[in-house]
Protein backbone atom coordinates (compact mmCIF):
# COMPACT_ATOMS: atom_id res chain seq x y z
CA UNK A 1 0.00 0.00 0.00
CA UNK A 2 3.04 2.30 0.11
CA UNK A 3 4.10 1.79 -3.50
CA UNK A 4 5.32 5.05 -4.96
CA UNK A 5 5.66 6.77 -1.60
CA UNK A 6 8.94 8.54 -0.84
CA UNK A 7 10.02 8.65 2.80
CA UNK A 8 12.95 10.58 4.23
CA UNK A 9 14.07 8.68 7.33
CA UNK A 10 16.13 10.55 9.92
CA UNK A 11 17.87 8.27 12.40
CA UNK A 12 19.04 10.07 15.53
CA UNK A 13 20.99 8.70 18.49
CA UNK A 14 19.48 6.11 20.80
CA UNK A 15 19.95 2.47 21.71
CA UNK A 16 16.62 1.72 20.01
CA UNK A 17 18.04 2.74 16.64
CA UNK A 18 18.56 -0.94 15.83
CA UNK A 19 14.76 -1.33 15.62
CA UNK A 20 14.70 1.12 12.73
CA UNK A 21 16.43 -1.42 10.53
CA UNK A 22 13.30 -3.55 10.83
CA UNK A 23 11.16 -0.48 10.05
CA UNK A 24 13.17 0.09 6.87
CA UNK A 25 12.77 -3.53 5.81
CA UNK A 26 9.01 -3.49 6.32
CA UNK A 27 8.53 -0.15 4.55
CA UNK A 28 10.54 -1.43 1.59
CA UNK A 29 8.44 -4.62 1.53
CA UNK A 30 5.38 -2.43 1.07
CA UNK A 31 6.91 -0.59 -1.86
CA UNK A 32 8.14 2.61 -0.19
CA UNK A 33 11.30 4.32 -1.42
CA UNK A 34 13.52 5.47 1.45
CA UNK A 35 16.37 7.91 1.69
CA UNK A 36 18.05 8.10 5.07
CA UNK A 37 19.91 10.74 7.04
CA UNK A 38 22.06 9.30 9.83
CA UNK A 39 23.05 11.71 12.58
CA UNK A 40 26.38 11.53 14.35
CA UNK A 41 24.63 10.02 17.36
CA UNK A 42 22.66 7.59 15.22
CA UNK A 43 25.87 6.32 13.64
CA UNK A 44 27.02 5.22 17.10
CA UNK A 45 24.27 2.60 17.12
CA UNK A 46 23.75 1.56 13.47
CA UNK A 47 26.21 1.67 10.60
CA UNK A 48 25.78 3.57 7.36
CA UNK A 49 26.45 0.32 5.50
CA UNK A 50 23.53 -1.51 7.15
CA UNK A 51 21.14 1.38 6.47
CA UNK A 52 22.33 1.71 2.86
CA UNK A 53 21.95 -2.03 2.27
CA UNK A 54 18.34 -2.01 3.46
CA UNK A 55 17.25 1.26 1.82
CA UNK A 56 19.19 0.50 -1.40
CA UNK A 57 20.06 4.19 -1.41
CA UNK A 58 22.99 6.33 -0.38
CA UNK A 59 22.99 7.31 3.30
CA UNK A 60 23.45 11.04 3.95
CA UNK A 61 25.43 12.22 6.96
CA UNK A 62 27.49 15.36 6.34
CA UNK A 63 25.95 18.73 5.50
CA UNK A 64 29.34 20.00 4.36
CA UNK A 65 29.91 17.28 1.77
CA UNK A 66 30.20 19.22 -1.47
CA UNK A 67 29.67 16.07 -3.53
CA UNK A 68 26.40 15.30 -1.83
CA UNK A 69 25.27 18.92 -2.08
CA UNK A 70 25.99 18.89 -5.80
CA UNK A 71 24.20 15.58 -6.30
CA UNK A 72 21.21 16.09 -4.03
CA UNK A 73 21.31 19.03 -1.61
CA UNK A 74 19.57 19.18 1.73
CA UNK A 75 16.71 21.24 0.28
CA UNK A 76 15.87 18.67 -2.38
CA UNK A 77 16.37 15.87 0.11
CA UNK A 78 13.68 17.33 2.37
CA UNK A 79 11.32 18.43 -0.40
CA UNK A 80 11.22 15.28 -2.52
CA UNK A 81 9.80 13.17 0.31
CA UNK A 82 6.09 12.58 0.86
CA UNK A 83 6.76 12.11 4.56
CA UNK A 84 9.71 12.79 6.88
CA UNK A 85 10.02 10.10 9.55
CA UNK A 86 12.30 10.75 12.55
CA UNK A 87 12.97 7.42 14.27
CA UNK A 88 14.26 7.21 16.83
CA UNK A 89 13.65 10.83 17.80
CA UNK A 90 15.92 11.65 20.73
CA UNK A 91 15.24 14.39 23.27
CA UNK A 92 18.08 16.32 21.64
CA UNK A 93 16.67 16.36 18.13
CA UNK A 94 13.17 17.15 19.41
CA UNK A 95 14.58 20.14 21.29
CA UNK A 96 16.42 21.33 18.19
CA UNK A 97 13.29 20.96 16.08
CA UNK A 98 11.25 22.98 18.58
CA UNK A 99 13.91 25.71 18.67
CA UNK A 100 14.31 25.80 14.88
CA UNK A 101 18.01 24.92 15.01
CA UNK A 102 19.90 23.79 11.93
CA UNK A 103 23.41 22.78 12.96
CA UNK A 104 23.69 19.46 11.10
CA UNK A 105 22.20 17.79 8.04
CA UNK A 106 19.24 16.28 9.91
CA UNK A 107 18.08 19.48 11.60
CA UNK A 108 18.72 21.53 8.46
CA UNK A 109 16.58 19.18 6.41
CA UNK A 110 13.82 19.30 9.06
CA UNK A 111 13.84 23.08 9.10
CA UNK A 112 13.84 23.24 5.29
CA UNK A 113 11.08 20.71 4.67
CA UNK A 114 7.59 21.67 3.65
CA UNK A 115 6.32 18.11 4.03
CA UNK A 116 4.58 16.38 6.96
CA UNK A 117 6.84 15.11 9.74
CA UNK A 118 6.22 12.07 11.96
CA UNK A 119 8.41 11.58 15.04
CA UNK A 120 8.90 8.42 17.11
CA UNK A 121 10.42 9.60 20.40
CA UNK A 122 12.53 7.47 22.71
CA UNK A 123 14.46 8.43 25.82
CA UNK A 124 14.80 7.88 29.57
CA UNK A 125 11.53 8.24 31.48
CA UNK A 126 12.75 11.27 33.44
CA UNK A 127 13.89 12.94 30.23
CA UNK A 128 10.44 12.30 28.72
CA UNK A 129 8.71 13.71 31.80
CA UNK A 130 11.00 16.73 32.05
CA UNK A 131 9.03 19.97 31.58
CA UNK A 132 11.44 21.02 28.82
CA UNK A 133 10.68 17.91 26.77
CA UNK A 134 6.96 18.21 27.41
CA UNK A 135 7.06 21.84 26.27
CA UNK A 136 9.02 20.86 23.16
CA UNK A 137 6.48 18.15 22.29
CA UNK A 138 3.62 20.59 22.79
CA UNK A 139 5.32 23.12 20.54
CA UNK A 140 5.93 20.58 17.80
CA UNK A 141 2.41 19.17 17.90
CA UNK A 142 0.94 22.68 17.80
CA UNK A 143 2.85 23.11 14.52
CA UNK A 144 1.32 19.96 13.09
CA UNK A 145 4.13 17.50 13.79
CA UNK A 146 2.74 13.96 14.11
CA UNK A 147 3.87 11.58 16.86
CA UNK A 148 3.85 7.85 17.54
CA UNK A 149 4.80 6.80 21.08
CA UNK A 150 6.75 6.60 23.22
CA UNK A 151 5.49 3.46 24.93
CA UNK A 152 5.80 2.41 28.55
CA UNK A 153 7.77 -0.50 29.92
CA UNK A 154 11.32 -1.52 30.75
CA UNK A 155 13.91 0.89 29.36
CA UNK A 156 17.45 0.15 28.20
CA UNK A 157 18.83 2.21 31.08
CA UNK A 158 17.32 -0.24 33.57
CA UNK A 159 14.46 2.02 34.66
CA UNK A 160 10.77 1.50 34.00
CA UNK A 161 8.32 4.02 32.60
CA UNK A 162 7.34 5.86 29.44
CA UNK A 163 10.16 6.28 26.96
CA UNK A 164 10.38 3.13 24.84
CA UNK A 165 10.45 3.52 21.07
CA UNK A 166 7.20 2.36 19.51
CA UNK A 167 7.52 -1.12 18.06
CA UNK A 168 8.29 -1.39 14.33
CA UNK A 169 4.76 -2.64 13.60
CA UNK A 170 3.30 0.40 15.37
CA UNK A 171 5.52 2.78 13.42
CA UNK A 172 4.56 1.09 10.16
CA UNK A 173 0.88 1.37 11.12
CA UNK A 174 1.31 5.09 11.84
CA UNK A 175 2.91 5.60 8.41
CA UNK A 176 0.13 3.63 6.75
CA UNK A 177 -2.50 5.63 8.65
CA UNK A 178 -0.90 8.87 7.53
CA UNK A 179 -1.01 7.95 3.86
CA UNK A 180 -4.48 6.44 4.16
CA UNK A 181 -5.78 9.73 5.54
CA UNK A 182 -3.89 11.73 2.93
CA UNK A 183 -4.89 9.64 -0.06
CA UNK A 184 -8.12 8.06 1.06
CA UNK A 185 -11.67 9.36 0.78
CA UNK A 186 -12.68 12.37 2.83
CA UNK A 187 -15.84 11.10 4.53
CA UNK A 188 -17.17 14.48 5.66
CA UNK A 189 -17.05 16.34 2.35
CA UNK A 190 -20.20 18.42 2.04
CA UNK A 191 -20.72 18.60 5.81
CA UNK A 192 -20.58 21.89 7.68
CA UNK A 193 -19.19 21.82 11.21
CA UNK A 194 -18.97 24.37 14.02
CA UNK A 195 -16.54 23.73 16.89
CA UNK A 196 -16.01 25.75 20.06
CA UNK A 197 -12.69 25.73 21.87
CA UNK A 198 -10.75 27.22 24.75
CA UNK A 199 -11.96 29.16 27.78
CA UNK A 200 -14.10 32.26 27.93
CA UNK A 201 -13.01 35.42 29.74
CA UNK A 202 -15.75 37.15 31.70
CA UNK A 203 -14.67 40.71 32.64
CA UNK A 204 -14.86 41.99 36.21
CA UNK A 205 -13.44 45.38 35.28
CA UNK A 206 -11.16 46.56 32.44
CA UNK A 207 -8.22 44.74 34.07
CA UNK A 208 -9.55 41.57 35.67
CA UNK A 209 -11.66 38.68 34.44
CA UNK A 210 -13.02 35.26 35.40
CA UNK A 211 -11.58 32.36 33.41
CA UNK A 212 -10.54 28.72 33.68
CA UNK A 213 -7.55 26.55 32.83
CA UNK A 214 -8.67 25.32 29.40
CA UNK A 215 -5.88 25.51 26.81
CA UNK A 216 -8.05 24.89 23.75
CA UNK A 217 -5.81 22.06 22.56
CA UNK A 218 -8.62 19.52 22.33
CA UNK A 219 -11.05 21.77 20.49
CA UNK A 220 -8.41 22.98 18.05
CA UNK A 221 -7.34 19.40 17.34
CA UNK A 222 -10.95 18.41 16.63
CA UNK A 223 -11.41 21.32 14.22
CA UNK A 224 -8.21 20.41 12.38
CA UNK A 225 -9.22 16.76 12.07
CA UNK A 226 -12.70 17.64 10.81
CA UNK A 227 -11.10 19.79 8.12
CA UNK A 228 -8.79 16.93 7.13
CA UNK A 229 -11.88 14.75 6.75
CA UNK A 230 -13.28 17.23 4.24
CA UNK A 231 -15.74 19.19 6.38
CA UNK A 232 -16.25 22.94 6.07
CA UNK A 233 -15.21 23.95 9.57
CA UNK A 234 -15.71 27.10 11.62
CA UNK A 235 -13.83 27.22 14.92
CA UNK A 236 -15.21 29.65 17.50
CA UNK A 237 -12.35 30.07 19.94
CA UNK A 238 -11.98 31.79 23.26
CA UNK A 239 -8.60 33.33 24.18
CA UNK A 240 -5.86 30.73 23.59
CA UNK A 241 -2.17 30.66 22.72
CA UNK A 242 -2.44 28.23 19.82
CA UNK A 243 -1.90 28.57 16.07
CA UNK A 244 -4.98 28.49 13.85
CA UNK A 245 -5.67 24.99 12.48
CA UNK A 246 -4.95 24.64 8.78
CA UNK A 247 -7.99 24.91 6.53
CA UNK A 248 -10.30 26.14 9.28
CA UNK A 249 -12.24 29.41 9.51
CA UNK A 250 -11.39 30.80 12.96
CA UNK A 251 -13.58 33.29 14.83
CA UNK A 252 -12.10 34.70 18.05
CA UNK A 253 -14.36 35.66 20.95
CA UNK A 254 -13.92 36.59 24.59
CA UNK A 255 -17.13 35.96 26.52
CA UNK A 256 -19.79 33.26 26.65
CA UNK A 257 -22.36 35.61 25.14
CA UNK A 258 -19.99 36.40 22.28
CA UNK A 259 -19.42 32.69 21.72
CA UNK A 260 -23.14 31.90 21.59
CA UNK A 261 -23.78 34.75 19.16
CA UNK A 262 -21.01 33.56 16.87
CA UNK A 263 -22.20 29.94 16.96
CA UNK A 264 -25.76 31.02 16.12
CA UNK A 265 -24.46 33.21 13.28
CA UNK A 266 -22.86 30.12 11.71
CA UNK A 267 -25.99 27.99 11.82
CA UNK A 268 -27.30 25.93 10.17
CA UNK A 269 -24.63 23.26 10.38
CA UNK A 270 -24.55 19.48 10.16
CA UNK A 271 -22.20 19.02 13.11
CA UNK A 272 -21.71 21.11 16.25
CA UNK A 273 -19.04 20.16 18.78
CA UNK A 274 -18.82 22.15 21.99
CA UNK A 275 -15.34 21.56 23.38
CA UNK A 276 -14.96 25.03 24.93
CA UNK A 277 -14.88 25.35 28.71
CA UNK A 278 -17.46 28.13 28.94
CA UNK A 279 -17.72 30.09 32.19
CA UNK A 280 -21.02 29.33 33.88
CA UNK A 281 -21.26 32.79 35.41
CA UNK A 282 -20.34 36.38 34.64
CA UNK A 283 -20.27 39.56 36.70
CA UNK A 284 -23.72 41.12 36.57
CA UNK A 285 -22.46 44.69 36.33
CA UNK A 286 -18.95 45.00 34.92
CA UNK A 287 -17.10 47.96 36.40
CA UNK A 288 -16.19 50.66 33.92
CA UNK A 289 -12.92 51.40 35.71
CA UNK A 290 -10.46 49.29 37.65
CA UNK A 291 -11.88 48.43 41.05
CA UNK A 292 -9.58 49.91 43.69
CA UNK A 293 -8.89 48.51 47.12
CA UNK A 294 -10.78 50.30 49.87
CA UNK A 295 -8.64 51.99 52.48
CA UNK A 296 -10.61 50.43 55.32
CA UNK A 297 -9.97 46.88 54.13
CA UNK A 298 -13.54 46.32 52.95
CA UNK A 299 -13.84 43.77 50.12
CA UNK A 300 -15.74 44.54 46.92
CA UNK A 301 -19.07 42.79 46.49
CA UNK A 302 -19.45 41.07 43.13
CA UNK A 303 -22.89 40.05 41.95
CA UNK A 304 -23.02 37.14 39.52
CA UNK A 305 -25.37 36.42 36.65
CA UNK A 306 -25.75 33.12 34.84
CA UNK A 307 -24.25 32.88 31.37
CA UNK A 308 -26.27 31.48 28.46
CA UNK A 309 -26.07 27.71 28.08
CA UNK A 310 -24.63 27.32 24.58
CA UNK A 311 -24.91 23.53 24.39
CA UNK A 312 -28.53 23.47 25.56
CA UNK A 313 -29.48 26.41 23.33
CA UNK A 314 -28.18 24.78 20.17
CA UNK A 315 -29.47 21.33 21.16
CA UNK A 316 -32.99 22.77 21.44
CA UNK A 317 -32.87 25.15 18.48
CA UNK A 318 -35.59 23.49 16.44
CA UNK A 319 -35.25 23.63 12.64
CA UNK A 320 -31.73 25.07 12.89
CA UNK A 321 -30.52 22.26 15.17
CA UNK A 322 -27.49 20.44 13.70
CA UNK A 323 -27.93 16.79 12.84
CA UNK A 324 -25.25 15.88 15.41
CA UNK A 325 -24.66 17.92 18.56
CA UNK A 326 -21.70 16.85 20.71
CA UNK A 327 -20.89 18.27 24.12
CA UNK A 328 -18.06 17.83 26.59
CA UNK A 329 -18.44 17.14 30.30
CA UNK A 330 -15.38 18.29 32.21
CA UNK A 331 -15.78 16.70 35.62
CA UNK A 332 -13.65 16.19 38.71
CA UNK A 333 -15.70 13.37 40.30
CA UNK A 334 -18.37 10.84 39.33
CA UNK A 335 -17.42 11.62 35.75
CA UNK A 336 -19.72 9.21 33.92
CA UNK A 337 -22.78 9.74 36.13
CA UNK A 338 -22.53 13.53 35.88
CA UNK A 339 -21.97 13.33 32.12
CA UNK A 340 -24.95 11.04 31.57
CA UNK A 341 -27.15 13.44 33.53
CA UNK A 342 -25.77 16.36 31.55
CA UNK A 343 -26.62 14.72 28.24
CA UNK A 344 -30.21 14.23 29.33
CA UNK A 345 -30.46 17.74 30.71
CA UNK A 346 -28.96 19.52 27.70
CA UNK A 347 -30.62 17.45 24.98
CA UNK A 348 -27.45 16.85 22.94
CA UNK A 349 -26.73 13.65 21.03
CA UNK A 350 -23.34 12.73 22.46
CA UNK A 351 -21.33 13.71 25.51
CA UNK A 352 -17.57 13.25 25.73
CA UNK A 353 -16.81 12.95 29.42
CA UNK A 354 -13.32 13.60 30.73
CA UNK A 355 -11.71 13.93 34.12
CA UNK A 356 -10.18 17.37 34.68
CA UNK A 357 -9.23 16.92 38.32
CA UNK A 358 -5.92 18.65 39.17
CA UNK A 359 -4.01 15.36 39.19
CA UNK A 360 -5.37 14.25 35.78
CA UNK A 361 -3.22 16.62 33.75
CA UNK A 362 -6.08 17.12 31.26
CA UNK A 363 -6.43 20.93 31.42
CA UNK A 364 -3.41 22.34 29.64
CA UNK A 365 -1.91 18.86 29.10
CA UNK A 366 -1.26 16.84 25.97
CA UNK A 367 -3.37 13.75 26.72
CA UNK A 368 -7.01 13.01 27.37
CA UNK A 369 -9.12 10.01 28.38
CA UNK A 370 -12.63 10.02 26.99
CA UNK A 371 -15.82 8.23 27.95
CA UNK A 372 -18.25 8.64 25.04
CA UNK A 373 -21.90 8.59 26.03
CA UNK A 374 -23.94 8.23 22.86
CA UNK A 375 -27.21 6.77 24.12
CA UNK A 376 -29.48 6.21 27.07
CA UNK A 377 -27.94 2.94 28.26
CA UNK A 378 -24.48 1.73 29.17
CA UNK A 379 -24.35 -0.50 26.08
CA UNK A 380 -23.97 2.66 23.98
CA UNK A 381 -21.00 3.91 25.99
CA UNK A 382 -17.43 3.75 24.70
CA UNK A 383 -14.29 4.13 26.82
CA UNK A 384 -11.40 5.45 24.76
CA UNK A 385 -7.94 4.79 26.21
CA UNK A 386 -5.80 7.66 27.38
CA UNK A 387 -4.11 9.12 24.33
CA UNK A 388 -2.93 12.40 22.91
CA UNK A 389 -5.58 15.03 22.27
CA UNK A 390 -4.75 14.81 18.58
CA UNK A 391 -5.45 11.07 18.68
CA UNK A 392 -8.71 11.76 20.53
CA UNK A 393 -9.70 14.13 17.73
CA UNK A 394 -8.99 11.45 15.13
CA UNK A 395 -11.03 8.90 17.05
CA UNK A 396 -13.94 11.31 17.37
CA UNK A 397 -13.94 12.28 13.70
CA UNK A 398 -13.78 8.62 12.68
CA UNK A 399 -16.77 7.97 14.95
CA UNK A 400 -18.64 10.91 13.41
CA UNK A 401 -17.92 9.62 9.91
CA UNK A 402 -19.37 6.23 10.83
CA UNK A 403 -22.42 7.94 12.31
CA UNK A 404 -23.21 9.75 9.07
CA UNK A 405 -22.43 6.67 6.99
CA UNK A 406 -25.08 4.55 8.69
UniProtKB/TrEMBL annotation:
| Phosphopantothenoylcysteine decarboxylase as annotated region, ranges | 1-192
Origin: domain of life:
Bacteria
Q: Supply one GO molecular-function term.
A: phosphopantothenate--cysteine ligase activity
Q: What detail does the entry give on cofactor binding?
A: Binds 1 FMN per subunit.
Q: Which GO terms describe its cellular component?
A: phosphopantothenoylcysteine decarboxylase complex
**Naturally occurring in which organism (per UniProt):** Thalassospira profundimaris
This protein is called Coenzyme A biosynthesis bifunctional protein CoaBC
The record's family statement is: In the N-terminal section; belongs to the HFCD (homo-oligomeric flavin containing Cys decarboxylase) superfamily. In the C-terminal section; belongs to the PPC synthetase family.
Q: Which residues form the active site?
A: 157 (proton donor)
The prosthetic group or cofactor this protein requires is: FMN; Mg(2+)
Amino acid sequence: MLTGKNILLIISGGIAAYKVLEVIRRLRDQGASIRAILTQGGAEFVTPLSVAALTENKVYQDIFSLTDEAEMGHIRLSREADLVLVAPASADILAKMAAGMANDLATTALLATNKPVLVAPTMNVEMWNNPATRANIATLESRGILRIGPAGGDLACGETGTGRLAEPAEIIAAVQDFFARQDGPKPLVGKKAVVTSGPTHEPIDPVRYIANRSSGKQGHAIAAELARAGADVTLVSGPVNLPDPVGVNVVRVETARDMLASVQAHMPADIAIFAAAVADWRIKDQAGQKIKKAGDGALPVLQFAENPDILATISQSGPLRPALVVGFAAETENVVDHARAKRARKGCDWILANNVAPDSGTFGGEDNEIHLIAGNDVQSDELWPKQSKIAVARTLVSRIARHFDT
